[in-house]
Fold:
Amino acid sequence: MQIKKIVLATLMASLIIAPAYANEKKAHHSKHSSKSMTNFGPGDHYAHSMKVNPAKFVKVDDISRAASDIPQPLTRNKSKIVEINLRAVEVIGEIADRVSYHYWTFNKTVPGPFLRVREGDTVELNLHNEKNSTHAHGIDLHAVTGPGGGMAVTKVEPGDSKTLRFKAKTAGLYIYHCAAGNAATHIANGMYGLILVEPKKGLSKVDHEFYVMQGELFTKGRLGKKGFQKFDSYKMINERPEYIVFNGRTGALTNKGQLQTKVGDKVRLFVGNAGVSKISSFHVIGEIFDTVYPEAALKNPHKNVQTTLVPAGGATMVEFEVDYPGDYVLVDHALTRIDRGAWGILQVSGVTDATLYSGDLASHSEPNESMHMSH
Ligand SMILES: [Cu+2]
Structure:
């Protein structure tokens, strides 16, 4: 009797799920023929089944982009035409030690390059999609005013290139991401980054700028499962990432990737959240942000903030001075996400100041001690 019930339940579940998969297969075989953004769901796009042969893609040693990899502040006082070249490249990289994944990237890293232009510039962005890509790719920059944010003119088939021209008319810090086909899938697989449209007057001078981006990975195998992991579209639509990481993989902003500063430095963090599902509650343990530009609204800063929200598909800019040496942990303060990978280290070197902070520091355990995955 019990077995019959289970069989019946399984059968019914498969009947409910089957039509969605069937539709997706059709959509997939017609190469995402959806011409515009007018045919969203419900339920006919998520079940993206992909057969991937990892051997067909370049294997990268490190999928993450360094937090310090940011172009210098702009010094010119005139607008110009800025040429930007991006490549959509699908690669194999590691989410964590011996956990590999078929990432989709801009320029082989996650996040893609930090783009920096000046308010009033005209951007000429060339996007090339590598020949061996499994999908068409494109780009939607939130700095663009126009249909699709650029996506409407940049859907690039494998082996092809397209050019987008736009005026960066509004200063701010913006996400860019691929939005071809099922946009969420392309974001979840790693196609995102930040573009800063510097105000004409520039930003205030700081000693260090860093690039931090939160993102999610939806793997078939659960957290910590070794080996090549396929993308799980059902987990994505349920908003249940296995990994939530800074800069593309677990541990990207630790050890060699940690943010290096010294006592007295002014620090600026450009923080983006690719999502694709979670809002980030960005916090640096042991620090107070002197200035937060909420949602990267450059004209309306807040002062003395502990934790700030970074919406999915949004950014924030925070500034603070570091006063005391040691390791400061960057987190999404929905703290269980630390175990999914959402943490990094800001290292401050220099001399201690007992008037600021004192006690038995030697008794403090390493910040990552409790964060080992023991699954
Ligand atoms: Cu894409």
Summary: The two ends are 35 Å apart (CA to CA). The chain has two domains: 54-198, 208-353. The pocket of copper (II) ion is lined by residues 88, 104, 135, 137, 178, 180, 186, 191 (CB under 6 Å).
